[in-house]
Fold:
Amino acid sequence: MQSIPVISFDNTEKAFAYKNDAELKKARFLFSSMGYPWLVTLGTRATPWLIKNGFPIKGLIRDTIFRQFVGGESLEETQKVARRLGEYGVEVILDYGVEGGDYGEEGLDHACDEFIRVIDYAATQPNIPFMSIKVTGIARAGLLEKLDKSVEENAGSLMKRYVKALETLTDEEEKEWQRVHDRMRRICHEAAEKKVGVLIDAEETWIQDPVDVLTILMMVQYNTERPVVYNTIQLYRHDRLQFLKDSYEAAVEKNFILGAKLVRGAYMEKERKRAAERGYPSPIQPNKEATDADYDAAVEYCIEHIDKIAVIVASHNENSNLYTTRLLQQHNLAPDHDHVHFSQLYGMSDNITFNLAAAGCKVSKYLPFGPIKDVVPYLMRRAEENSSVSGQTGRELALIKKELARRERG
Structure:
């Protein structure tokens, strides 16, 4: 049996070794502020408006929430952060943090070029094995939604339903979808050539089906010898564990390596609200326990089929990360197995990331970058996510205070 050192996510000395006292105190102030929901609500509503209307608050944002959660405004600025993380055995997933929007064909082409630029840059760095993209960055959301609706209305396997859905497109939409396909192929081809992994982000359920199809088609083409393309599977959806198993069956049938990034999910409130308003069953699990059970079952399924599945355990849940390390031991797999990777967001859960790295596991930080005005939506989500004292903020703050107290004791 492969031996993994005993891991304690309470070890704050390892968790925050890369931060000096001043940085840790700044983080304490930030997470303390996030403990006041009214302050977070005010900030998340006012900040985008203030930025849009030219108020001089970028300096304040840069020195606080931006520095905590973002790698820099430019690709080059991320180098310093990546190098620092690399000193502690932590790798990086680069994310060009521009959200999808109505940018027109020119904007979609520009986003494609930017994604390729990120790939080319990552290939020159020693500890950046992955980058991530959103299909909404290279495809019009309305087109994705039309395709998804048609897929839902058809019968049969996902691929068969997709082929039928294509028939509902107009000539112009068909050409538009071909351009999306071409952008995706350009990105994945460059990634395969440069040996950089591409993580395809998950989207809302009403545009996810065409994203899944496009991702699987790219895997068939590029994941023949090594994992290049990874789909993101949101286990807070009650149908995703079965989708993972179906994807594995497709990988066996088509002889490709399934790349699977496992997350819990990002759109829960939006999904439930839309389902209630439109009168269809919610796609979201009934409770957190069901999500946790499916998440851990998905991890177990991936480890049991590790020859054909490359998995990224992208989780801030301590139990799920520890469970994965136990499964590696039980299956006599090395902690740094080529098909097993762990990941957490930059600025959060350092106690998980750095303790996994110290135990010899492959682990990375998801590192967004981009102009402050462009990454504000990302930052606002991080603030909202951390606004519950009983949730993430409470845990982060307790660990930071513990480490500062340890340092003061000498």
Summary: The radius of gyration is 21 Å. The longest helix spans residues 171-194. The first strand starts at residue 91 and ends at 96.
